[in-house]
């Protein structure tokens, strides 16, 4: 059977090229299921949760009876009241036992058939009496898996169901109940409670405080991506540099599953269909990866649409991300802070060296595009748009001229602004000025490793040619010289002989303009505004 890269629904190794998750399944079983833990797998949209759960159910079936449910398959009216929910849940349990091929399922579900005939007086109390009876008479411990618990997020009956489950968990030494329970979704149970009861004293009063903390990493590593590409290479013999391409994909995605697969799918299918490249050998290159990223960012995808929706709903999160991207603001990581907790839960943010950072480069590029689009009418964007025709010659971007024109523009418009204004918005104005110049042909991203409140490195990619531009706040000659040395080191990393430095200088006696200096074998174009 031919295989392809998959970005919709769960993955199947017989049908799709996919990262092997055997080690992940082993860890979940050994660290959680075997100990009888109740836990939640919370990850952002399209993070491989469903794929993991289906593979886990298969992995566990030799030792356990696995009941797999999906709340997305339940209708809205199924959550309308306690009795309706209890009936619907039991029907799903009976069907799941049949699908699992449980030997004594008729015995286990005998009481359920009677219940279905009676059709009345069957609420959560009766439901859990039946569930306890099933677990007591089961030939093996039962593991309950419920996917898409977000579908129940606005229903009080589900919260009451969790409370009952918690009660049985606490007395399970005497009263039989599920050996292990696994819930999966984007929202954690704490936030389901928050959505139902937004008043402050109930925000974190969850009935699911029995849950073990799930610490299994679900990101793909470069080695795992390489293993997947090796399987593809064995079929198509493209001659690609597998470790190099895997590392390049990881640099853009940080291993976010659907982003990894999206890049691969774009190179394998879209490029060939649209005749972007003549053959697969030319497509599976670092340049091909960069082009795939640009193509994906231009599309309207479910993941990016979800990101925009959440940012529109949570304005504090929006402004926090804006501060991180534009100002290099360093925010101490704490999940107790509501905006940080939401950003991490949605998959937009993560922790690095004790601070909050954007989860991956593609998210940051998407967010930059979003912010830029919302300010397309600004003076900086409009000036860049009107100037852009003069910056491209023979399909090459003249970055020297870009800086020269920006210095003149900035001095004209913002020279009388105060220090705080320039420090807060100077870098933002350059990014706005640059965006229409490269829009549609090139792209840029902010290098997370070098970004802080004083310094931000912008990597501009225009038709395969990269430009390294350091944006910095002036803090004296000594600091500037250190910055020049840091930039030369960074140019070595990117194998470049020329770099650019844009300094926002608050010294009243400063000399604005563009100069060129030589440090060793490196040329640095320095612009001061």
Biggest sheet architecture: 6 strands, mixed
CATH superfamily of the largest domain: P-loop containing nucleotide triphosphate hydrolases
Number of helices: 21
What's the number of domains?
3
Query: Could you tell me the mean pLDDT?
Result: 86
Q: Which structural class do the helices and strands define? A: alpha/beta
Just name the CATH architecture of the largest domain. 3-Layer(aba) Sandwich
Query: Percentage of helical residues?
Result: 40-55%
Spatial strand sequence of the major β-sheet: 11-12-13-14-16-15
Oligomeric nature of the chains: single chain
Q: Could you please describe the fold and organization of this structure?
A:
There is one protein chain. With 529 residues, this protein is of the alpha/beta class. It folds into 3 domains: 20-202, Rossmann fold (3-Layer(aba) Sandwich); 222-299; 376-529, no CATH class. 50% of the residues lie in helices and 16% in strands. It contains 21 helices and 16 strands. The chain has helices at 22-33, 49-60, 82-99, 105-108, 110-118, 124-137, 156-170, 189-196, 222-236, 242-253, 257-273, 280-283, 286-298, 302-313, 315-327, 338-346, 361-374, 379-387, 399-414, 419-438, 477-493; strands at 4-5, 16-17, 38-42, 65-70, 142-147, 180-185, 349-352, 355-358, 392-393, 396-397, 442-447, 455-462, 465-473, 498-504, 513-519, 522-528. The protein has a 6-stranded mixed beta sheet with strand order 11-12-13-14-16-15, with helices on both faces. It has a 4-stranded parallel beta sheet with strand order 3-6-5-4. A hairpin with a 2-residue loop joins strand 9 (392-393) and strand 10 (396-397). Helix 11 (257-273) crosses helix 13 (286-298). The longest helix has 20 residues, at 419-438. It starts with a strand and ends with a strand. The model is unreliable at 198-204 (pLDDT under 50).
């Amino acid at each position: 059977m031919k295989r392809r890269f998959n970005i919709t629904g769960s993955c199947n190794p017989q049908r799709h090229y996919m990262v092997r998750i055997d080690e992940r399944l082993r860890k979940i079983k050994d660290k959680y299921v075997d100990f009888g833990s109740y836990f939640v797998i919370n990850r952002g949209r399209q993070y491989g949760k469903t794929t993991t759960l289906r593979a886990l159910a298969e992995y566990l079936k030799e030792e356990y009876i696995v009941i797999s449910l999906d709340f997305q398959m339940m209708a809205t009216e199924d959550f309308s009241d306690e009795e309706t929910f209890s009936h619907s849940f039991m029907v799903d349990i009976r069907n799941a036992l049949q699908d699992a091929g449980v030997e004594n399922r008729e015995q286990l579900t005998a009481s359920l058939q009677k219940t279905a005939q009676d059709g009345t007086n069957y609420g959560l109390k009766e439901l859990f009496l039946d569930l306890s009876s099933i677990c007591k008479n089961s030939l093996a411990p039962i593991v309950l898996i419920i996917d898409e618990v977000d579908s129940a997020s606005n229903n009080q009956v589900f919260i009451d169901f969790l409370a009952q489950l918690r009660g049985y968990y606490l007395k399970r030494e005497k009263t039989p109940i599920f050996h292990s329970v696994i819930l999966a979704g984007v929202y954690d149970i704490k936030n389901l409670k928050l959505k139902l009861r937004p008043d402050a004293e109930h925000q974190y009063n969850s009935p699911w405080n029995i849950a073990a903390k799930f610490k299994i990493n679900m990101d793909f590593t470069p080695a795992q991506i390489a293993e997947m590409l090796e399987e593809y290479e064995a079929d198509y013999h493209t001659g690609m540099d597998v470790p190099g391409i895997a590392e390049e994909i990881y640099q853009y995605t940080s291993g976010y599953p659907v982003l990894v697969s999206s890049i691969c799918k774009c190179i394998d299918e879209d490029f060939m269909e649209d005749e972007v490249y003549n053959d697969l050998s030319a497509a599976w290159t670092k340049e091909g990866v960069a082009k795939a990223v640009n193509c994906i960012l231009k599309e309207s995808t479910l993941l990016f649409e979800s990101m925009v929706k959440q940012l529109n709903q949570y304005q504090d999160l929006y402004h926090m991300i804006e501060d991180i991207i534009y100002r290099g603001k360093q925010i101490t990581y704490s999940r107790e802070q509501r905006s940080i907790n939401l950003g991490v839960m949605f998959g937009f943010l993560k922790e690095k060296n004790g601070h909050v950072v954007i989860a991956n480069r593609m998210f940051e590029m998407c967010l930059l595009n979003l912010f830029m689009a919302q300010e397309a009418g600004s003076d900086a964007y409009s000036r860049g748009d009107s100037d852009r025709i003069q910056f491209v010659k023979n399909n090459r971007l003249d970055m020297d001229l870009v800086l020269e024109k920006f210095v003149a523009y900035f001095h004209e418009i913002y020279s009388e602004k105060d220090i705080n204004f320039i420090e807060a918005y100077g870098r933002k104005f350059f990014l706005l000025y640059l965006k229409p110049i490269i829009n549609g042909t090139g792209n840029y991203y902010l290098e997370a490793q070098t970004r802080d409140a004083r310094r931000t490195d912008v990597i501009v990619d225009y038709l395969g040619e990269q430009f390294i531009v350091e944006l910095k706040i002036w803090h004296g000659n000594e600091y500037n010289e250190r910055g020049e040395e840091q930039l030369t080191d960074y140019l070595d990393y990117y194998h470049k002989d020329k770099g650019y430095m844009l300094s926002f200088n608050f010294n009243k006696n400063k000399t604005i303009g563009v100069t060129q200096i030589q440090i060793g074998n490196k040329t640095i174009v320095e612009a001061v505004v």
